[in-house]
């Protein structure tokens, strides 16, 4: 029974307390995994107990049915032995060996449920060195997270996003690269519309792109069974987080047999996909050896240009293009702004790497793969303030129908959108030790506005794309104009930005200023006259 004080706590306060319980003990990564691991155990147990009640209602309290693993797995529920259930840990919370029991439970859950192999934190609770009192406090706090107290439509999602987001906000640059702001992921999903087919992410982090693709399907009354998710992640800790994050939400996924580099150990060779959603590491260095991958089929068509070893931006682009279905593949991904202009008269124009990126971008544009370029506001990400752009690549820009919309032929056109001035919506996040961070976010109406601009441009009703523009926001541009600008993709090179100084009528402005000066001088003379008269009254004359 929850106390009155417990009932008054908000969900965010409870989750914050979970983080505070481990402050001063393990490393950033260990504390993150320990808290998220317990949240997983709580939710997995809740689903297990709910399914167990259903089995009793269907078959009676018969051990042969209650302990049959397939009866749980068929409903996307993990079977848990008694010593792995949350109720057991609530009862044992104050015991001296609670950390050891948690480590054993995580191992046994993986062994019993093959899809979770490699997903759960292993051997970390005992290594944290947390007192039994603190561990009990953490278990008690996690125990407060339930649907009866917090009537959230997606409580699992809220809890996982809170921990992933706030641990990312507390992290260093390298630590926090696995989390992409939810509003940005939502924008990508709304633009590429992953209703059916395979959604792929070559650097999936904690799986946020896949979660949002399913949310998109749900919000638009689609069918989850028509969508398959497939991805890869090189960081072992983040790969585990992704498996945990997706499995607790009931999202089946193929993340490969292990964590591995997409470039040197592609876990999904020769597979094609209909959708790609990605946020590759910005300006990744040393992604290949000096002479490595030179004849790789993903890059060979663009030779003699080869993505430089010092920057993987174009390696990601070519890898994603190699995966896209040639008839209907569409990709939405984020890259640092340097990719828009590398080699096009920029500082690195004479640099071999810059020239290679330029030549690849030129070939991609001439192959008519680029559909839209969207500049995002700064300060949207947790571990960097680098300027970032959303790219939309499309293998089919021909006329046709898509999801109930009639599309026109957009070959030879690119839509540029500049959202850098959309920086008025600020959210504040509490990070470790009470410090605050502020980040720019998109609200629902802004996401809908971008989708409207994009969809209207695609539509057959856009009969004059030459004039499809709004100053300082968007513009449709022909490939011929992009060629004249040396294949740069910087939106501000094409979108009209109004110089407010140039709109001034100088004659009228000078007349206004002169009138103001005359009035000021007249006022000063009147004040001087009043002052002189006042002094005369007291017998003092100003000379």
UniProtKB/TrEMBL annotation:
<dbReference type="GO" id="GO:0009007">
    <property type="term" value="F:site-specific DNA-methyltransferase (adenine-specific) activity"/>
</dbReference>
<keyword id="KW-0808">Transferase</keyword>
<protein>
    <recommendedName>
        <fullName>site-specific DNA-methyltransferase (adenine-specific)</fullName>
        <ecNumber>2.1.1.72</ecNumber>
    </recommendedName>
</protein>
<dbReference type="InterPro" id="IPR038333">
    <property type="entry name" value="T1MK-like_N_sf"/>
</dbReference>
<dbReference type="InterPro" id="IPR022749">
    <property type="entry name" value="D12N6_MeTrfase_N"/>
</dbReference>
<dbReference type="InterPro" id="IPR052916">
    <property type="entry name" value="Type-I_RE_MTase_Subunit"/>
</dbReference>
<dbReference type="GO" id="GO:0032259">
    <property type="term" value="P:methylation"/>
</dbReference>
<comment type="similarity">
    <text>Belongs to the N(4)/N(6)-methyltransferase family.</text>
</comment>
<feature type="domain" description="N6 adenine-specific DNA methyltransferase N-terminal">
    <location>
        <begin position="11"/>
        <end position="137"/>
    </location>
</feature>
<dbReference type="GO" id="GO:0003677">
    <property type="term" value="F:DNA binding"/>
</dbReference>
<dbReference type="InterPro" id="IPR029063">
    <property type="entry name" value="SAM-dependent_MTases_sf"/>
</dbReference>
<keyword id="KW-0680">Restriction system</keyword>
<dbReference type="GO" id="GO:0009307">
    <property type="term" value="P:DNA restriction-modification system"/>
</dbReference>
<dbReference type="Pfam" id="PF02384">
    <property type="entry name" value="N6_Mtase"/>
</dbReference>
<feature type="domain" description="DNA methylase adenine-specific">
    <location>
        <begin position="152"/>
        <end position="498"/>
    </location>
</feature>
<keyword id="KW-0489">Methyltransferase</keyword>
<dbReference type="Pfam" id="PF12161">
    <property type="entry name" value="HsdM_N"/>
</dbReference>
<dbReference type="GO" id="GO:0008170">
    <property type="term" value="F:N-methyltransferase activity"/>
</dbReference>
<keyword id="KW-0949">S-adenosyl-L-methionine</keyword>
<dbReference type="InterPro" id="IPR003356">
    <property type="entry name" value="DNA_methylase_A-5"/>
</dbReference>
């Amino acid at each position: 029974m929850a106390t009155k004080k417990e009932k008054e706590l908000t969900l965010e306060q409870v989750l914050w307390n979970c983080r505070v319980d481990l402050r001063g003990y393990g490393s950033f990564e260990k504390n993150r995994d320990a808290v998220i691991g317990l949240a997983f155990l709580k939710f997995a147990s809740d689903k297990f107990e709910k399914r167990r009640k259903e089995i009793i209602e269907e078959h009676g309290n018969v051990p042969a049915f209650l302990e049959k693993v397939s009866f749980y797995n068929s409903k996307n529920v993990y079977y848990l032995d008694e010593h792995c259930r949350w109720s057991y840990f609530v009862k044992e919370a104050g015991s001296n060996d609670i950390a050891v029991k948690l480590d054993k439970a995580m191992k046994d859950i993986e062994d019993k449920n093959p899809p979770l192999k490699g997903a759960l934190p292993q051997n970390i609770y005992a290594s944290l060195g947390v007192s039994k009192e603190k561990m009990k406090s953490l278990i008690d706090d996690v125990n407060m997270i339930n649907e009866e107290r917090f009537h959230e439509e997606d409580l699992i999602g809220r809890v996982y996003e809170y921990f992933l987001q706030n641990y990312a906000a507390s992290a260093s640059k390298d630590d926090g690269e696995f989390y992409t702001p939810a509003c940005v992921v939502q924008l990508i999903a709304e633009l590429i519309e992953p209703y059916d087919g395979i959604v792929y992410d070559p650097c999936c982090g904690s799986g946020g792109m896949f979660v949002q693709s399913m949310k998109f399907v749900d919000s638009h009354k689609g069918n989850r069974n028509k969508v398959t998710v497939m991805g890869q992640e090189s960081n072992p800790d983040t790969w585990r987080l992704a498996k945990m994050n997706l499995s607790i939400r009931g999202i089946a996924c193929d993340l490969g047999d292990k964590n591995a580099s997409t470039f040197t150990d592609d876990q999904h060779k020769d597979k094609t996909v209909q959708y790609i959603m990605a946020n590759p590491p910005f300006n990744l260095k040393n992604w290949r050896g000096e002479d490595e991958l030179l004849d790789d089929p993903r890059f060979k068509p663009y030779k003699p240009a080869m993505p430089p070893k010092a920057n993987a931006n174009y390696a990601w682009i070519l890898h994603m293009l190699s995966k896209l279905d040639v008839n209907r593949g569409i990709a939405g991904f984020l890259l640092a702004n340097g990719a828009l202009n590398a080699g096009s008269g920029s500082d690195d124009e004479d640099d071999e790497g810059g020239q290679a990126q330029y030549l690849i971008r030129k070939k991609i544009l001439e192959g008519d793969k680029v559909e839209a370029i969207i500049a995002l506001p700064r300060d949207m990400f947790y571990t960097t303030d680098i300027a970032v752009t959303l790219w939309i690549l499309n293998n089919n820009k021909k006329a046709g129908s898509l999801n109930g919309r009639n599309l026109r032929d957009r070959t030879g056109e690119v839509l540029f959108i500049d959202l850098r001035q959309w920086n008025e919506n600020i959210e504040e996040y509490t990070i470790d030790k009470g410090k605050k961070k502020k980040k720019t976010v998109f609200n629902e109406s802004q996401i809908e506005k971008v989708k409207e601009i994009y969809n209207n441009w695609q539509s057959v009703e856009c009969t004059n794309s030459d004039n499809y523009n709004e100053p300082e926001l968007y513009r449709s541009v022909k490939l011929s104009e992009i060629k004249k600008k040396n294949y740069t993709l910087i939106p501000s090179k094409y979108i009209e930005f109004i110089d407010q100084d140039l709109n001034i009528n100088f004659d009228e402005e000078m007349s206004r200023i002169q009138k103001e000066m005359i009035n000021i001088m007249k006022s000063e003379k009147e004040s001087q006259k009043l002052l002189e008269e006042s002094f005369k009254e007291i017998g003092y004359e100003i000379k």
